[in-house]
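Mods, move this if it's the wrong board.
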Amino acid sequence: MICHVNNSPRCWVAALYAGVAAGILATIVQIALWWSFLDVLPGIFYRDVRYTAAILLGKESLQASDTLSLQHVFIATSIHVGLSIIYAIGISYLIRCLNGKDSLMLGGLFGLGVFVINMYGFVLIFPWFVETRDWITVTSHIVFGVSAASVYRALTENDSYSTN
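Not the wrong board. Structure tokens:
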């Protein structure tokens, strides 16, 4: 099979939408799982916002608080969306020659790989993320990968690849 990548603006826009949609869905799933299995909301959500904001703002952002600052929310959301788009672009290149089922499977594996990179690689620079390693975080990363692949595939079904 020879694949011809379509680098049209439509494919780039599809990757952008896939990243944003998958980032939102993964966050919703993570919050739902926290709510369903742990009695930790809203504190754990506030913690993750502070942890993510600390990537840009520094360790002083890590101080525990029962409230959220708008600055932390804005910065954490920007980082989350930015990384989601970057990862979705990666997924889009990996699945461009695959059928729907294989795309979803690879998307899930990609999400698992992102978990490993985020929770075992990034902690070398941002050690506070060690506390976020759990099955809920693994699950939300897999959901991210599957949903990014699904949205990208749906938006580019007729023009993302062709075979000879």
